[in-house]
Amino acid sequence: MSWRKKKMRNKLLGEMERYFGRDARRINHARRVLGYAEQILSREKGDGEVVTAAAILHDIGIHAAEKKHGSTAGKFQEIEGPPIADHLLRRAGFPEDKIGEVLTIIAHHHTPGIVKTTNFKILCDADRLVNLEDEKNSREG
């Protein structure tokens, strides 16, 4: 990963952590999804900047969904997440030509099948792996 891409990754992590504040659960989830996404990227041909940004920000709308809709359901996260992500991406100086794809991934990551790009599939697989781990741990716990 180039210095420029690593710097952007760290900026986006900082933006996400500031946005979530003390919500360690959401921060840790995003970091774990990012870890899996990076592993998958090492084997698949995706756009590292798009996948990294989508992994970090994919659930960024969860607080707004809960506040506006009284629910953290995926359909509400898909509505509330893109405008928040757009603001954070622009504030971090993310490449303008890639923002649209990141927002599309965030807007559909709970409804697989609509978007068919490699970048979308990588994010969904990484998120699914983390969610499966969490389910397993809660059953065993």
Automatic annotation (TrEMBL):
Q: Which residues form the HD/PDEase domain?
A: 22-141
Known InterPro entries for this protein? HD/PDEase_dom (IPR003607), HD_domain (IPR006674)
Q: Which PANTHER family match?
A: CYANAMIDE HYDRATASE DDI2-RELATED
Can you name this protein?
HD/PDEase domain-containing protein
